[in-house]
Structure formats: C-alpha cells, structure tokens
Amino acid sequence: MMESTTLCIHEYLSTYTRRCIDRVILLFSLNNQLDVVINGKHESVGSNLIVINHSDLYHITNAEQLVELTIPVQQFAEIDQSFFHCYYNFKLINSSEYIKYLTLTMIEQLSRLNDTKSSNIIELITILNKEAKIKQDFIYVPTIQSESNLLNKISVFIKAHITQPIFSKDISNSFYISAPYISILFKKYLGISFKHYIASLKVAVSLAELVHSKETIHAISENMGFNHYPNYTHQFKNHLNMTPNEYRKKFMVLQRIPVKLINEDVSNYIPYFESISVEKPLPSNQMNIELDQLTYKDIAKTPTLFIHIDDLMDIVQSTLNTNLNFTDLSESYLMINNISKLALEKLSFTGLIDFIDSLFSNNVGIAIKIKSRHQFKFIQDIILQFKI
C-alpha cells in the first residue's frame, strides 16, 4: 500500500532542511506562529496557508500549534496527469480559510469517528488546481532564492543540467570556486550538503519518468545522470524507503488512500473544532485569464498628440527642434495657437524650410488654430509664398 494521507497538529515544531519527495504538504498555524524557509527563502507566514511542493526544500524554523496535512503525489496524479509539470503558488490561494475548514473538519472527524470523507481531500486538491496551480512545459524543479546570489546562480546551473552527472568539479570549473567553498555555501544558506542536494533532487525529478514511462530502471538512472544504477537504487531507497521498482508497481495500483490522524489526543484543540462548526467559510469563485490567449474584436483608436506653442520663432531659434523625436507615435502635431506672431519677415525662409523638413522627418506635422476668415486668408497668403 502506498503512503497514507496524514494529518497532525504539532504543539511546537522546528525541523532541519528536508527535500519534499512524493508528497505535497499544507501547513498553517492555529495561533499564527509559523516561520518557514522554502527553497532558501524565508517566509514569515503568520496565519497564511503554506504549500510545500514535491521537490521543494523546506525548513520549519519555528511553529506553534501547527496543522500539517501531507498528501501523497499519487492522489494529485490521479486527478491531473500533468502534475509533475506543475507547482502550487500558495500566494495565489483565495480559499485558504475554506481549506483550513476542510482540514480541521477532517481532524475532528478522525478524532471522533476514526474516519473521514475521502471526498474532502479530492475537493481540497481541486481547489489547489483551480486557484494555485502554475503549469510549465518541463518538469518542476524549484528555484533557489537564498541570500547568496552565487548560490542562486549555482542552483540555476544545476537545474539546467539536472539530467546529467553533476560533480563539485563541474561547479568549480563553471564558477571558479573551490570544492570546499561549495560545501560551505550549501551548508550555510540551505542547511544541506551539496551531495545531498543533488541526489535528493535527482530522485525527486526521476519520479515523473518512473510512473509515466515504460523505461527500465537502469535506463531511468542513466537518464537522470546517476553514474551507477546501484547508486540510483540506493539513493531512492534512502529517501523513499523502497526501491524504484517497488514504487512504480505500487503507484500503478489505483486504490483508496486512507487518511490517518497522527495525534492520539486532540482534546486541547476542541475550541477550534467548535468554532468551525459555527461558521463555515465559503470557497471563493475565481476566474483565471490567460492574457496571451485573449483575442480582441475592437482595435483602440490611435491617439493624436498636439504640442501647443504660441510663438513659432521661439521653437525655430531654439535647439528644441533637434531634440524632438516622436517616431513611436503615429500622429503628432506642432499646434500654433497664435498666428498673430507668425510674421514671416522675421523668419529666415531657408531656416523655416529646414525646420519644417526636420519636423516631417520626425513624424511631426504642423497644425494651425484658425479662428476667423481673415486668419484663414492670412495663412493662405503665407503658404502661397512657398510655391515655386
């Protein structure tokens, strides 16, 4: 039988750095005391709901009255075949209060009846898929966001070469640092050794091919860059307490995965159970819109820009015209508001021609505000002077 879905309330909890493999973990604190480091980034969570994805690194630094729900990957994969190409961004969840309600309801039922509805887990996964799932074209490998920029860059290198053999000498040659310094970086900022980081990540990533392909275990170990097949089996068993072949066989068996409560006594938390039976939060309705897939029936009208001036002489004699550049705008005009100052005898004919030509070269037209027939005749006479 595959691993059960488990529920537990920890009065106090702190952990060392772990790789989350073959499961997705949901965490929240009943008294808003939860600090956790996920993939090198510190998250001061408070009352929020946290999701730790399959393949994530996590370290609970401090937690009180922590509710932990651990769901095997198999349950997610049964609902969504693309599970390994996704991850959950907990910051997108709108129905966190309803998820807490479902979780505490299951704990209350298990403590009282030693059983709970399996549909609650399915509903919870459905909410996560609807609100927090981020799809990718490739298998999810977490991005490290530690306080060390160098370590973050190394993790990107590892992510890009995860299916190849990766040794400390490869990192040394690429980043010009020594092997001992690599170990220091991983221990200091992630609390995990370089070898453990690589091996655990390769095992986690290998699950997708293990359950979705018919490749031999030997071929999968080579595809994941393990130097020896026995090494892959050893690392796999070290992290999952079973061989790759045993995991594959059990994963393929469709079965009802039981939900187990780890706590023997939850009487101290009865007030929380009583409160959820009074007010049941409702799930929020959310619509996800893919901006890249939007189609538009109407096209917005191109804007027109008018630059208002009172005296053309001020512009012609200044250097402003050499700095005008409106090539990004389809319609721009120099608007002359006061034609009484448009005295052609004050202007150099050649200079005016050059000025107008420079405007047209920069996609800028000329507009003149005419308020009377007399002004129209005045402008017409000026234009006639330009005729050859």
Automatic annotation (TrEMBL):
* Residue ranges of every copy of the HTH araC/xylS-type domain listed in the record: 152-250
**Which molecular function terms from Gene Ontology are attached?**
DNA-binding transcription factor activity; sequence-specific DNA binding
InterPro entries hit by this protein: Homeodomain-like_sf, HTH_AraC, HTH_AraC-typ_CS
The record, for Pfam families, names: HTH_18
What does the UniProt keyword field contain?
DNA-binding, Transcription, Transcription regulation
Q: Look up the signal peptide feature and give its range.
A: none
Q: What is this protein called?
A: Helix-turn-helix domain-containing protein
